[in-house]
Design goal:
eight-stranded mixed beta sheet, alpha+beta, 545 residues, single chain, 14 helices, Heat Shock Protein 90
């Protein structure tokens, strides 16, 4: 009976090597550059000619050719294993291509069946001055691609006679963590250059970049609520940080990575401490204190007014220049509901009301509660008084009623009552029995036609619908419906008068009377006693006149 198991690699795996390690062009560039660096090279020269790629490095060269095709094995020493965890793929990244290798006066030519186990003869050639040369068929190793993966290797890399950029991964103040084998720098996301950004799929994400000696991997981790970039540069010391094999494009979830995350959080808060100002929530402020990092209070974060709009925007609430936040108001939490009725009326009172001293409501996210600047007097009660009803209609399915007057009132915790006429308010038909399906009811005064832009009223009727027509088309249709509503409010005679006076607005100022005849003619009586006659094209002038 079998009592033990032992892992082993089947020979059939080797026979499939020409299909297992084809990989990507970027993967081949990375692997060959990493091998050169590990061999002690300081310079790599790449040439593309006649469909062949030639790679020469000035490293130690190949001491033992037998290791080249020993899958999973290499001649890297124990220190290298602990620091970099090389995968042992090596030259197999070039399979199944025909590959010529020259180093230290020896040459090997590996063809397709050589990758799968056929013995390969070594021949004597003229000795290279130093290092090793690889020649193989591949798509061109163009400079832009090679440069991306060479820039942080510490190597001088030349492609077809042109030098690749050579940059330091860490550029500023960095903190060493020998137990993790790395140095860490924290900076603003916008501070990193294009060579760093090239490894990020999304500009505002992939907050962590780890440089494994030129091979850079990115992953998302944001331990603090600001857009910071964390640069982790491996130093060559022993480390428990490991990459997923064989591609090595993401870290292995292990104890070392969990420790790295903790360290990144601390360094993030320390960076903010050095910077001296921040926008962190109060919870994060307390977390920094828990980690022993003392921060100042966050800069005040607020929005003037209580309504948020993109396009269209509601009427604007203006905070006077140098007006102190301490004199502003927040809506009391118990007045907040699932609709924007109270917020809308408070906003409209502040935007359209007339007061001797400014009434400025602000919106501060609950996540900032705890900071001294967020503790403001509150708006504790809001109510609306409506005048006599004039007309009712629906705009975009939103019920709208014109009334002779609207007064909005707000009572605040500092004992004041703010009240003023307003051109618009938001109510419910039945406050006591409103349901989920009961939309707000808009009330407007006739003055709203002159005091508010159509787009500002459109905001309260739902605004732009992304699933509908273009913005301009939707705005035009709303304006047409609104104009028809104002005609109803004004009455048919007043609407006609407005239309006529609007039509003659472009006529010269020297007229005293304009007469429209039944045949479509227009007679303009001027101040100087002359008469201008405008006749439609289809009406012929009477010769007797």
């Amino acid at each position: 009976m079998q009592t033990t198991l032992q892992a082993k690699v089947s020979k059939r795996l080797l026979q499939k090597a020409d299909r297992l390690f084809t990989g990507t062009l970027a993967g081949r560039v990375i692997e060959i550059l990493q091998n050169a660096r590990r061999a002690g090279a300081s310079e790599v020269t790449i040439e593309n000619k006649d469909g062949l790629v030639s790679v020469h490095d000035n490293g130690r060269g190949i001491e033992d050719f037998s290791k080249l095709l020993d899958l999973g094995d290499s001649d890297w020493d124990q220190a290298m294993e602990k620091a970099e965890d090389p995968a042992g793929v090596g030259l197999f990244c070039l399979a199944p291509r025909k590959l010529t290798i020259r180093s230290r006066g020896l040459q090997a030519v590996i063809t397709k069946d050589g990758w799968t186990g056929r013995p390969i003869r070594l021949t004597q050639v003229a000795a290279e001055e130093q290092g090793a040369t690889l020649i193989f068929a591949d798509e061109p190793w163009v400079k832009d691609l090679v440069e991306k993966h060479a820039v942080f290797t510490g190597l001088k890399v030349i492609v077809d006679g042109k030098d690749c950029a050579h940059k330091h991964f860490i550029r500023g103040q960095a903190v060493a963590y020998p137990r993790l084998g790395c140095r860490i720098e924290v900076c603003e996301q916008q501070a990193v250059g294009p060579h760093h950004q090239a490894f990020k799929e999304h500009y505002y994400h992939d907050e962590v970049l780890i440089n494994f000696h030129g091979q850079v991997i990115a992953f998302g981790y944001s331990p603090v609520g600001e857009r910071l970039q964390f640069l982790v540069d491996m130093t060559g010391q022993a480390t428990g940080l490991r990459m997923m094999l064989p591609a090595r494009t993401q870290p292995v979830e292990n104890k070392a990575l969990r420790e790295l995350r903790k360290v990144l959080e601390i360094e993030g808060y320390r960076f903010i401490q050095r910077r001296g100002s921040h926008k962190l929530t109060y919870k994060e402020f307390l977390r920094a204190a828990e980690l022993g990092i003392e921060l100042p209070e966050a800069q005040p974060r607020f929005q003037t007014g209580t309504l948020r709009g993109d396009t269209p925007e509601p009427p604007e609430v203006v905070m006077p220049k140098d007006f102190p936040l301490a004199r502003c108001y927040r809506i009391h939490p118990r007045l907040r509901d699932t609709t924007h009725r109270i917020e809308a009326n408070v906003h409209l009172l502040a935007a359209c009301g007339r007061f001797q001293s400014p009434f400025v409501p602000v919106d501060i996210a609950d996540s900032y509660d705890g900071y001294s600047w967020a503790k403001l007097p509150t708006i504790d009660q809001v109510w609306v008084d409506l005048g006599q009803e004039i007309a009712t209609d629906y705009l975009l399915g939103q019920k709208i009623t014109a009334v002779k007057s609207i007064f909005i009132h707000a009572r605040t915790s500092d004992g004041k009552t703010w009240e003023s006429e307003a051109p618009l308010a938001v109510m419910y038909d039945d406050e006591a029995h409103r349901s989920f399906y009961n939309d707000e009811h808009l009330y407007v005064t006739p003055e709203a036609a002159n005091e508010l832009y159509p787009s500002q009223m459109w905001y309260f009727c739902g605004g732009f619908n992304e699933e509908g027509d273009t913005y301009d088309t939707q705005e035009y249709l709303f304006e047409q419906d609104l104009e028809a509503f104002w005609a109803t409010v004004a009455g048919p005679g007043e609407y006609l008068r407005r239309k006529i006076t609007s039509a003659v607005a472009g006529v010269e100022d020297d007229w005293t009377q304009i007469t429209i005849t039944s045949d479509g003619g227009v007679l303009i009586h001027c101040e100087n006693g002359t008469l201008r006659t405008l006749r439609p094209p289809h009406v012929k002038k009477d010769k007797s006149t």
